[in-house]
Amino acid sequence: MALPQPAPGILVENASLEYQGQVIFNNLSLALPAGQCTCLLGPSGVGKTSLLRLIAQLSFGSSGKVKASDGQDITGRISYMAQND
After folding, report:
1. DSSP string spanning 66-79?
2. How many CB atoms lie under 10 A from the CB of residue 64?
3. CA 19 – CA 61 distance, rounded (Å)
4. What is the distance between the alpha carbons of residues 66 and 29, in angstroms, rounded to a whole number?
5. What is the C-alpha separation between 29 and 27, in angstroms, rounded?
6. Which of 60, 68, 50 is nearest to 12 (CA)?
7. Residue environment code for 6-33, b if the CB has 16+ CB neighbours within 10 A, otherwise e
8. What's the CA gap between 12 and 65, in Å, rounded?
């Protein structure tokens, strides 16, 4: 019986997002390693939820590339649950 493959990390490359004419983030690149906890901290309005929505492919009006560290597409591989259902 084959062991399950470990989950890949997530790579965000050159992401940019504007909201109501204001730049929320621009040229953001980061690597989120698999098997580790990552915390997004900051005051309201700095783009924490927007970044999570971008990673989950729920954000429109954004640019950049989000992919798994194994090089595969993340479509169908990400789940997202907001604070408010």
Report:
1. EEETTSS--TTS--
2. 17
3. 8
4. 9
5. 6
6. 68
7. eebbbbbeebebeeeeeebbeebeeebe
8. 6
How far is the C-alpha of 71 from the C-alpha of 33, rounded, in Å?
13
Query: Can you tell me the distance from the alpha carbon of 1 to that of 47, in angstroms, rounded to the nearest whole number?
Result: 43
Q: Answer yes or no: are the C-beta atoms of 50 and 19 closer than 8 Å.
A: yes
User: Closest Cα partner for 48 from 75, 21, 83, 20?
Assistant: 83
83 vs 3, 10, 29, 58, 71, CA distance in Å? 33, 21, 25, 15, 30
At 39-83, the pLDDT tens digits run 999 998 888 888 888 888 887 667 888 888 888 888 888 888 887
Structure tokens at 17: 């997002």
pTM: 0.77
